[in-house]
Amino acid sequence: CPHQYNVTSYGTTTLAITSLEAFAGMWINAFIVCVLCIGWVKKKTLNSNEKILLLLGGSRFCSLCFAWVNHFFTRIYPKYFYVHPIHQLLTFFATFFKYSNLCVSACLCVFYCIKIANFRNRFFIYLKVKIDRMVPWLLLGSGILALAMGIIIYDLTETMQRNNITFTCLRNFWKERIRMDNHFFSAFFLLGFGYAASFMAVLFSALFLLFSLWRHKRTMQTNSMKDLSMEAHIRAMKSILSFLVMYTINFVCLSVTIFYNMKKQNTMTLLTYIYLYAFPGVHSLILIFSNPKLEKALIKILSCVKCK
Q: Which residues cross the membrane (predicted)?
């Protein structure tokens, strides 16, 4: 059957591409975690930036791992995948770590905004002084929000599986259908709200930071300051702008997955999954090259491999 061949070809292509991106992203984020943990053992302490990067690298590694396992079981072992509670647990962990990734990356952008930006507002100055103490609470709040989203998705998958089995009575079919649709709507609304909240935090932080850097660059131009400092600010603005563009596309792709979740496989879902699997690895690679400690460790490893 041509349709069956197309579905099989689609599934094989998707699995191959996402597997390559997932393993590359896991390697990159595992590198970040290892370097920061080695530094933690040596110095016996971590600064606020390193705490966020450590948790971000760990959540992205686990997110890619569980998302790939979930995708692999769906394509290769669909019968075993729907055995209770394998499907529910895999979906729970995949959602928990995905939301941890989104929330912690938003915390990182907020942290950079407060640390780097220069505004004379009293509240902003207060945040700049207290941000290091607030970081553990921000990370704890991110974990609690991710846990709540994971529980919601676990309940949603449990309801879907139970209703697929118990939809046998024709007399109560429409009543059950309406109740199920309402349940799905509330769950997907909360998912979309979580995506939108993290995106808005990143958007406003990046815009404030870009405005501050742009204003500082103009001040340096008028005062005829050194070109090296100006180049550093321009490089920082380009980095933040690239992250904002990547995160915006990521938010759009996550929103698309909600609308296409109940529909058949098509080109849109293929492109969406390709980008969603690529984003954690690509952005983590940008973080490595923007952090002198991580960049130095990566260059050292690559030089050793090249010598061997």
A: 22-40, 52-69, 89-114, 135-154, 184-211, 240-260, 272-290
